[in-house]
Amino acid sequence: MSRPREFDYDKVLHQLMLVFWQKGYKGTSLTDLMESSKLKKPSIYGAYGDKHAVFIKALRLYRMQAMESIQQLLSRENSALKTLELWKSNLLDSDSSNCPKGCFIVNMALELGTEDAEAKVEIDALFEDSEKLLEEVIRRGQKNLEITSRYPARIIAQNLATAQHGVRVLEKAGASPDKMKAILDYSIESILADRDA
Amino acid sequence: MSRPREFDYDKVLHQLMLVFWQKGYKGTSLTDLMESSKLKKPSIYGAYGDKHAVFIKALRLYRMQAMESIQQLLSRENSALKTLELWKSNLLDSDSSNCPKGCFIVNMALELGTEDAEAKVEIDALFEDSEKLLEEVIRRGQKNLEITSRYPARIIAQNLATAQHGVRVLEKAGASPDKMKAILDYSIESILADRDA
DNA sequence: TTTATTATTGACCGAACGGTAATTAAAAGT
DNA sequence: ACTTTTAATTACCGTTCGGTCAATAATAAA
Description:
The structure is a homodimer of 197-residue chains. Chain A contains nine helices and no strands. Chain A has 197 residues and is mainly α. In chain A, 73% of the residues lie in helices and 0% in strands. Chain A has a domain of 137 residues: Orthogonal Bundle (Tetracycline Repressor, domain 2), CATH 1.10.357. The interface between A and B is large, with 42 and 42 residues.
């Protein structure tokens, strides 16, 4: 018993996310959001809330998509090495794709730090979850003797996650895909098991 | 034959840098700069130029200080391992010190990306120079058989630099010093030579 | 067909933004 | 003492910011 909205809520939220991803939180104005969504201010406000609420919804959407993406990596029952290669390709592909540079969450972690409590929830959640998924991959690889057991899986996973953050920094700063590839190649190669013995 | 300025140019620039470091470029208003420097708007403008010019001067100051700091690490003729330990302590100390979280340059790299050409000069310069200094340390360590020669010094240095960026991300996001220490410990330990043979 | 509810629109708000013109004050050169 | 030059202060400018009010339009329920 009411007028239905004339736009696709999820589709528009995706568009809004892209704007925040590209321009940052403070760098995005309501005018930017209006242009990309082709909605007027009160429509955005009515559907998603104020600027900060839109932003948090955008962060959450990004996190969900990112989580799904990396969970798919693991669900396919590949070897640990193959999974890590897919992880690497994923990082390199996103660089050449048409979406904004870098990881939205990492970008926002550095813009907002720990000041925005709601944003911090999303940031911490993605960081922890992706670290845990990497740990699971490493654990598998250690059981299969693909990956060194010289260090605990957790430590190795922490380091891979940190390397990923670092690569995101380089990506955003305009580093070449070749350089990013070299770094990720090393990150993987240096934890292979056949070095041990 | 003119009136001298009543404040210390360099001291005030340092203060202004801290504001940009803490609040980011877009997050810093002229009012913020006025409060921290205790100067009025036209005084700031007269001495340093407009907001963007102040910002670039602040970035350059930070880069100079950072460069000097890491060059000092190398100039003391320690072993490569000792130098890397100092490098690690440096990263961990800056976390517990009273200056803003994270690396100013990394923060700005992620806020501005490649859009601000003048800022990009400073960002690229610090990234490249710190990578080169790390490469020099690694090269020394390889000659002394302290550090593995399984990979070229340049690759190892790239990876250490990337780990540093990643740690800066974690620091800014509020990670514990313990976690950062664990990651840096691994980064160093995993390139020691006594693993090879 | 009427009524209730909600989406959309256009106009508008006060506040904060970066920046500047005009004035006053202070030093140095003559 | 007087002029010149530059710093500091005050008041102000136009623009953009995020947000909202009032009016209109569209749907579903009665």
